[in-house]
Design a protein that fits this description.
The chain is of the alpha+beta class. The protein has 3 domains: 196 residues, no CATH class; 111 residues, Phosphorylase Kinase, domain 1, CATH 3.30.200.20; 216 residues, Transferase(Phosphotransferase) domain 1 (Transferase(Phosphotransferase), domain 1, Orthogonal Bundle), CATH 1.10.510. Helix content is 36%, strand content 14%. It has 17 helices and 22 strands. It has a 6-stranded antiparallel β-sheet. A 5-stranded antiparallel β-sheet has the order 11-12-13-15-14, with helices on both faces. β1 and β2 form a beta hairpin. α1 runs antiparallel to α7 and α12 runs antiparallel to α14. The protein is elongated, with a radius of gyration of 35 Å. The N terminus is likely disordered. This is Protein kinase domain-containing protein. It comes from Rhynchospora breviuscula. One of its GO terms (molecular function) is ATP binding.
Length: 637
């Protein structure tokens, strides 16, 4: 809060006390109609409806009258024939039958258009318009005597112009000699159109994403309204204090006696002074509390990043992914019900979220955010890292970030939901079936993962090193389309982080080794020097999992063979690869292809990074292997 805000508030109160009361002040005064407001059953209209200026939603302002109330949409008046919780039955005000004896029907002189409003035409209404049948050519000879406008003349020949959003409706014209008898035809086109309008136009609305409705949900116990003095009519939450002031002002303005005005003026001055003092004290308390909270959170975030909080850092990268509220994600995950947990990682748990529109997403909730905790810096840095990196990525084989939430109750990330589990579950977990993944499918999964790495290493400037390429971070879709996820450990290879540059194109970044045991590049672990080839090593271990169906780490093996890379490299060097091939891949005809993938994995896990292929070379080799299988027809097996 600005330090001069209390002084400005007092000056504003002084101007209210010593200036005449304006009859047009922007207060929402809820009036109670003396008569009913058809078709509403109660004289007090619920939000978003209102019959008082400045109250409710500006697009739902109702003029109560008998026998039909009216509403103005895009400056056009409509009569309300019926109302439900999410729809109106409307008709243009001039379309109801008139007592006038004129033989000229009162047709609309412009199209009915609800674009740029919260309303949309019901499909049933468009269906009724499309079902009109005419017995002859839609040109009425007597229409010229009625002084019709050019639009009304076109409407007689093209009735589908009546409603803009039904413009794709094709009206059916049938001659009098037609054998079609299941739909009656209309000979009087103008009165048929009027009959259509008098039956009513059904319009719906959806306020779940409307800014007025969203703001109103937090306006309690105040009254929801809008500023009538501005063209944009921004939302206003009228508090109980402003309503009390408005009522007192109206009472003072309506009192004829000068003495009574003086008495009420003294009472008003005393009341407003007391209210002003209370508000100032409350604001000072809230401001101090907010400053203390921000200071604590800011210290934690600066400890994590050595710089400013997450929102500022995102703006520095020209990124602004969508922001969700904590309550939105809590509702979508049933308050993070353990039944909805679909994964668990080093930094947090992943839950299945179902939103009100039926869409699904995966929500990662990082371990409880505690500014005082020693691990808060690491957790928050992982959170920031995923937002910055994933917000820039667009590739079919990478998990997409839909948004985030920063809240004292938790740090949350919202991703694509991939419904078919992880590669690890399909190879040696809960989703492993008999006969299991075919060899062709395994090669295709390897190729899709390699394409994702090629994009990270060669398609981005600066390149991105994932640092945690594992079978548990490769998500399998229902169509076996895979996506690489979990970028909490990823790094951008920027010059600011570089400690040297190798003879080849790789930029070498000096950082502490992080990753999953069994997949971690041993050279990176020894030297603290990170390059794209560290991802290639991890991918080589994944290839070995695809060939053998074994886990990356298995303590039941001999100690020097705990890790799959050490175990398989030894078997390949001894010419014993066939002993460790997954038994479900028992076709002798694919052994050549399996040996080719094993040879590629052997090169990927080479001890010296310069002996490893880069991601682009890996993609080319896997394309060659897959193409050979396709030629032999193995994609059918």
């Amino acid at each position: 809060m600005h330090p001069l805000f209390p002084l400005a508030l007092l000056l504003h109160l002084q101007s209210l006390l010593f200036s005449p009361v304006s009859a047009t002040s922007n207060h929402c005064s809820i009036s109670h109609p003396t008569s009913s407001c058809p078709p509403f059953r109660s004289p007090v209209l619920p939000y978003p409806f209102s019959s008082s200026s400045g109250c409710g939603h500006p697009s739902f302002h109702i003029n109560c009258s008998q026998p039909h109330s009216t509403i103005s949409i895009s400056s056009s008046p409509f009569l309300l024939l019926d109302q439900t919780s999410t729809s109106f039955l409307l008709t243009p005000s001039q379309s109801l039958p008139s007592s006038s004896s004129s033989s000229c029907p009162s047709l609309p002189d412009h199209p009915i258009d609800f674009s740029n409003t919260p309303f949309h035409i019901s499909p049933d209404t468009c269906d009724r318009l499309s079902s009109l049948q005419f017995c002859h050519s839609p040109v009425r000879n007597s229409s010229s005597t009625c002084g019709l406008t050019s639009f009304q003349h076109r409407l007689l020949s093209q009735p589908h112009l009546l409603i803009t959003s039904c413009k794709n409706t094709s009206l059916k014209f049938t001659s009098t000699s037609s054998n079609s008898t299941h739909i009656p035809c209309a000979g009087d086109i103008p009165n048929s159109i009027l009959g259509f309008l008098q039956a009513g136009i059904r319009v719906h609305w959806n306020l779940s994403s409307d800014p007025y409705y969203i703001n109103c949900s937090s306006c309690s116990p105040g009254t929801c309204g809008y500023n009538t003095s501005l063209p944009s009519k921004p939302f206003i939450c009228f508090s109980s204090n402003s309503q009390l002031t408005s009522q007192i002002n109206r009472h003072v303005a309506s009192t004829p006696s000068i003495d009574r005005r003086k008495g009420h003026f003294v009472l008003l001055t005393t009341t407003l002074f007391a209210v002003a003092c209370f508000i100032i004290l409350l604001l000072l308390y809230l401001c101090a509390t907010a400053l203390i909270r921000r200071s604590r959170q800011g210290c934690s975030l600066r400890a994590a990043f050595g710089t400013e909080p997450v929102a500022t850092l995102l703006r520095g990268h020209h990124l602004q992914p969508p922001i969700f509220t904590y309550d939105q994600l809590s509702i979508a995950t049933s308050d993070f019900d353990p039944i909805r947990k679909i994964g668990d990682g080093g930094f947090g748990s992943v839950y299945l979220a179902e939103f009100c529109d039926g869409s699904l997403a995966a929500v990662k909730r990082l371990h409880r955010y505690q500014p005082e905790a020693a691990l808060a810096a690491t957790t928050t840095k992982s959170f920031y890292n995923e937002i910055v990196i994933l917000s820039t990525l667009r590739h079919p084989n990478l998990v997409r970030l839909h948004g985030h939430c920063i809240d004292p109750r938790g740090l949350l990330l919202v991703y694509d939901y991939v419904p078919n589990g992880t590669l690890a579950e399909h190879l040696h977990g809960s989703r492993r079936t008999c006969p299991g993944l075919s060899w062709y499918v395994r090669v295709d999964i390897a190729l899709q993962t390699a394409l994702a790495l090629e994009y990270l290493h060669f398609g981005l400037k600066p390149p991105v090193v994932h640092r945690d390429v594992t079978s548990t971070n490769i998500f399998v879709g229902s169509d076996m389309q895979v996506r690489l996820g979990d970028f909490g450990l990823s790094r951008l290879l920027t010059c600011a982080d570089a400690c040297s540059t190798s003879v080849s194109r790789e930029l070498i970044c000096c950082t502490g080794p992080q990753g999953t045991p069994g997949y971690l590049d041993p050279e990176y672990h020894r030297s603290f020097r990170l390059t794209e080839k560290s991802d290639v090593y991890s991918f080589g271990v994944v290839l070995m999992e695809l060939v053998t169906g074994m886990r990356a780490v298995d303590v039941s093996r001999e100690r020097r063979e705990f890790t799959l890379a050490d175990y398989i490299v030894g078997k390949i060097q001894q010419g014993q690869l066939q002993e460790v091939v997954d038994p479900v891949l028992g076709h002798e005809d694919v052994l050549i292809s399996i040996e080719a993938v094993a040879e590629l994995a052997f090169r990927c896990v080479a001890g010296d990074k310069d002996d490893r292929p880069n991601a682009r070379e890996v993609v080319e080799e896997l394309k060659r292997i897959k193409g050979k299988l396709s030629e032999e027809g193995w994609y059918h097996k």
